[in-house]
Design brief:
Rossmann fold; four-stranded parallel β-sheet; 10 helices; 9 strands
C-alpha cells in the first residue's frame, strides 16, 4: 500500500511548477538589496539555509538563516522570512512576536498563528501534507523562493520526474549515511540527513563537503554511503572512496536529488517495518505549552 509520504513525494514536480508561477506576483518577498534573515525549525530551517546561500550568491543582499530560538535579536534586518508548514510552530510564533522587523510568513495553512502574526503571509495550501515527515511543502517553498531569485524551475522539475522513475536501492545495505553539500546544498544535505533519521531511523550525518575530511571521514568505511550533493573540489569523492565507502555524486539539480533521497528514506523505512508517515516521537508540529 502506498504511504501518504510516497504520494506527497511524487507530487513535487507539479507543486514546484505551480509555485514558480506564483513567485512574481506574491507580495512580501525580499526586494534586491534588503538585508534579510530566513528562519524556521527543523526542515524549514534547512530550507532557510539553502535560500540564504542562494540569495547571497545571486548578489541580492546579505541573507542569514537561523533556527527560530537562536535568532540574534540585537541584529538589524530589513525583512524576516519565516517558514512554518503548519503555521503553529511555537518557536517561530514567539520570535515574530519579539520582532519589530517586517515578517513574511510562508505556510501551508491559512489562519494559523504564524501567518496571522506576520505582515505578509504566503499560503502554499496546495503543498500541504498529511504525513508528519515533511517533503512536498519544504521543497515547494524553496521552489517559490528560487523562482523569485530568477531561477528557471523547469529543469529541476524534469530532473525530479526522472528521480521518481528510479529508486537507488543499491545502497540499502549501508548502515551509516553521510550527506555532503556546498553553498546552498549544505542546507539540503542537512535536510537529507534529517529525512533518513525521521523516516528510517538511520544513523546519518551532514557536512559542508570540504569539512568532511577534517575529522568526520574517520568514521567512513565499507558499510558507509557518502552522498555528495555539491562540492567545489571533485577530489573529495576520490578521497572518500579510499575509505572503502560507497560514494554517490549527484548529477541532477540538488532539489531533485533530494527527491531521490526522500524515496530512499521511505524504502528503508518500509524495509525495516517502520511507518514512514508516523515516525516515533514526532508530531506534525511542535507546539509548546
Amino acid at each position: 500500500m502506498t504511504s501518504e509520504t510516497e504520494r506527497e513525494i511524487a507530487s513535487q514536480p507539479a507543486a514546484w511548477r505551480r509555485a514558480a508561477t506564483l513567485a512574481a506576483g506574491v507580495p512580501g518577498l525580499p526586494a534586491p538589496g534588503e538585508r534579510v534573515a530566513a528562519v524556521g525549525c527543523g526542515t524549514s530551517w534547512f530550507m532557510a539555509q539553502a535560500y540564504a546561500a542562494l540569495r547571497e550568491e545571486a548578489g541580492l543582499g546579505e541573507t542569514d538563516a537561523f533556527t527560530a530560538t537562536e535568532f540574534p535579536l540585537a541584529r538589524r534586518y530589513d525583512r524576516v522570512v519565516a517558514i512554518s508548514r503548519s503555521g503553529t510552530t511555537t518557536e517561530v510564533r514567539r520570535l515574530i512576536g519579539a520582532l519589530a522587523t517586517p515578517v513574511t510568513a510562508i505556510t501551508a495553512v491559512a489562519g494559523t498563528p504564524v501567518p496571522q502574526a506576520a505582515e505578509h503571509a504566503i499560503v502554499l495550501d496546495f503543498a500541504d501534507e498529511r504525513s508528519v515527515v515533511q517533503t512536498r511543502f519544504a521543497t515547494t517553498t524553496l521552489a517559490l523562493l528560487r523562482a523569485h531569485l530568477g531561477h528557471d524551475l523547469e529543469p529541476a522539475a524534469r530532473d525530479a520526474e526522472e528521480a521518481l522513475a528510479e529508486l537507488p536501492s543499491e545502497h540499502a545495505t549501508a548502515d551509516h549515511v553521510v550527506f555532503l553539500g556546498h553553498g546552498w546544498t549544505v542546507g539540503l544535505a542537512n535536510e537529507a540527513a534529517l529525512k533518513l533519521r525521521e523516516a528510517a531511523q538511520v544513523h546519518t550525518e551532514a557536512y559542508p563537503a570540504m569539512e568532511y575530511r577534517h575529522g568526520p571521514v574517520s568514521l567512513a568505511g565499507p558499510s558507509s554511503l557518502v552522498w555528495i550533493l555539491g562540492t567545489p573540489d571533485p577530489a573529495v569523492a576520490t578521497d572518500v572512496r579510499t575509505t572503502g565507502a560507497t560514494v554517490r555524486v549527484a548529477s541532477r539539480d540538488a532539489m531533485a536529488e533530494l527527491v531521490s533521497i526522500q524515496r530512499f528514506a521511505v524504502a528503508l523505512a518500509v524495509a525495516r517495518g517502520l511507518d514512514p508517515d508516523h515516525p516515533r516521537h514526532l508530531t506534525r508540529s511542535v507546539v509548546l505549552a
